[in-house]
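Case study 2.
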Amino acid sequence: MALLGAAGDNGAQEVVAMATIDQARAAKRSLRERIAQVDGVCGVGLAQRGDAHDWVLQVNVTTVGARKDVPPAVEGVPVRVHVVGAVQAL
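Prediction:
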């Protein structure tokens, strides 16, 4: 896993972890177990961030409140949370 420096919202340098797809796949299993009982989670997957060698875990939730129960990273792989609202069958 590589680390990159990136400017944060306040202009300070922050560390952003980069993960390969294999690292993200392995961490996805752990994340699914950790958030299995969290109300409002409607999906867990992988997403590219940046280039083809930079992957994150993506968690889709139905409400903003569900975000608080999702960890910011798992096994060193960053977690991105998207609030998608209620999921309905078409």
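The radius of gyration is 14 Å.
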